[in-house]
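anyone seen this seq b4? input:
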Amino acid sequence: MVTLRATEISLCLSPLLILTPTSMLISGLGFNFFSEMTWRYTLYAVQHLGPSSVKLCQWMATRRDLFPSHICDRLSVLHDKAFPHSWHHTVATLKEAFGDDYQENGLLIKEEDILGCGSAAQVYQAVLKQRDKRGNEVERPVAVKVLHPNLKRNVHRDIWLMEAVAGLMHSIPLERIRMLNLPRATQTFVDILRRQTDLGIEAQNLRQFRANFYEDDDHESRSEIIFPRPMDGWVHEKVLVEELAQNAHPIATSLTDDSLEGHKTRRQLGNVQVKRLEKEEQRTTFFGRGLQNKIVLLDAGIAFSLDPNDQRNLRDLFRAVVLNDGETAGRLMVERAKYERCSEMEGGIEAFAAEMQSIVEEFHNRRKGGGLTFGSVRIGSLLNRVLDVCRIYGVEIDPNMSAVVVSCLVVEGLVRSLDPNLNLIDAAIPFVIGIGGV
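predicted toks r here
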């Protein structure tokens, strides 16, 4: 199975070895048709290879600070314009989940009402008939997510390949490679992929987010951050029925609006994004427009939580960074690492702490320029340096902490696009002094 998957990937991507350089050559002569054909094949190949490849490209589309804007624009279509599956599969899955009489029980869904198609599921707009507290029949607009056919099989196939490659690399008798502990790192990503194959997990995540963010219905109506409500009795491993986010628009539409109102909207959304990051870690794809701009989080399939000990570690680390105490931050990372070899080296802890102090000082030296804003500070670059120092000195980052770093990188790219003048320290203070949550 692993050999077949590796062969499939090689065959699928091999045409790009010819198409890409040819496209660059011909485009330089003023002919763009070949470039368009190359991009079309690239998107086709990514989608053909399955959800793992699509997820990677979706992440790339959010990082305009790392990749050229034209590449991000091309890849952004993968967020909701993947290959749609057939109506026959949708009906068969609905019957499997809710029985042959799902329409008689109140779910009215039409073939043409597709809202979008992502890497894991296809989303429809539908109507759900229910009884209110008084016994009257009401019709509620809902969104229906239906997993693509053979999704679990395709994901497991990629998992087998990743685990085989990680195991092979780990068997190489080189200390630097073994220190990466690729099998355990791969397992973290594997756990994330597996969650994508069960919409019941997404429903649980949505309920938990709603419990974390909303004290009651009134609080929910005033919140700047919206999580759709899963509909009771309409949740299955392959199908999820939830509240429809009405009058919602892709957040990408505000990134290209250069009007005064567009700049105002981006500033508001940037602040909301940072508030959200202080509260929880999630994926943002849409926002709602009204008298007040709100963020609507539609995909809660990938979520995680930190235990109290990890929360304390993260808060202490952030506090040391904000207070320009990189040496303390470095020592905390060594002391609280679950796996580290730094203490076995002579002077290793002191050297590691000194490296961290250097990185943090560079971070704070940006105050002399444009201040500690998302536009002037490249968080991704600084975090990459931190990870590189950890690798050199053998200080392993816990998988949950790594997930926090990745979430910060994703939100950083989006906030920089929305409002590069948002100040990092102002945003971090509530979390550092202990009134934020993770």
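The beta strands are 107-117, 121-131, 137-147, 225-226, 230-235, 239-243, 248-250, 286-288, 294-296. The chain has 19 helices and nine strands. kinda curious what u guys think
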